[in-house]
Amino acid sequence: MSFSRIMVTGGAGFIGSNFVRYILTHHPEVFVLNLDLLTYAGSLENLNDLPADAKYQFVQADICEQGTVTDLIRAYGIDAVVHFAAESHVDRSILGPGAFINTNILGTFSMLEAARAVWQTEKKLGEGQVRFHHISTDEVFGSLEPGDPAFCETTPYSPNSPYAASKASSDHLVRAYNHTYKMPVTLTNCSNNYGPYQFPEKLIPLMILNALEGKPLPIYGDGMQIRDWLYVEDHCEAIWKVLQEGKDGESYNVGGNNQPPNIEIVDAICALLDEFKPDSSHRPHQQLKKYVTDRPGHDRRYAMNISKIERELGWQPKYDLQHGLRKTVEWYLSNPDWIEAIRKQKQYDDWVSQNYSKRGEK
Predict the structure, then answer these.
(1) What residues are annotated to the active site?
(2) Percent of the chain having pLDDT more than 70?
């Protein structure tokens, strides 16, 4: 498959903006239409140094506005949709699940209907010349016990948070459109991403920024929750590979082959900041660690079996955690203007206060 006019939803968010950059850098012949509502996790600050180019266009719009999306797909001759747009923070889904139902389920329905209207009902493009690629998460599979095998593509869904349930629902919708309407689709279920431009409520940027300012490093429970950490550039390469070469109707797990407990992530960040900021009054940064009450229903362990995408498409992650974390810390240290802009326009401090102020020390 070869696509030349791609709509990226949520392309002003963390992974989406990295994917837009990836396409424009590595595939400059491709036109990118970036559709984003610019809610709290999406910002034009993530895209402010992109060159003015006829191959790129940004549109601020809601994926739930089906008529608008349909008009855009038709007007721009879109032949592939890469659907990132989603509410994605578990803690926020616990405090306010309604937004997750609306964006992740109804928004995906709206996107599918818009694409179906142009590609199939109106037959604006030929058979086999279009694709809807859906970005999902490992959290749809639930939680693993210490000795359990890693999630594979056939692992039964067992979501444990409103966020995970909403993403599981959207996955089912995408598969149903493939089966019922023969919509050409592919899906990827990724593990925890990290890297440049990540909204600083997530674990890694939160720990970096709090440590720099001498604030407590809040660690849920005993800190032994295990995640599979995927550097965002590796993820972008995997998505492109699946979009171009993946089999219609198939899903592919994407992981980083890095599965330490969260406490080790925090310790590694502290060690890097000790190295990069030897004159900091907060050294050693590990002294800032603070164990707090765990989140409700916190999944204990995720791990991804990525043998399918390795075997069928030849993709493997390039970054191990040591290399990826070093690059990530360096990026946040080198971009204080981005950090300040994001905090001001997205009321970041209000959210952190709301989420952590009532979590007592363990």
Answers:
(1) 138-139, 163
(2) 93
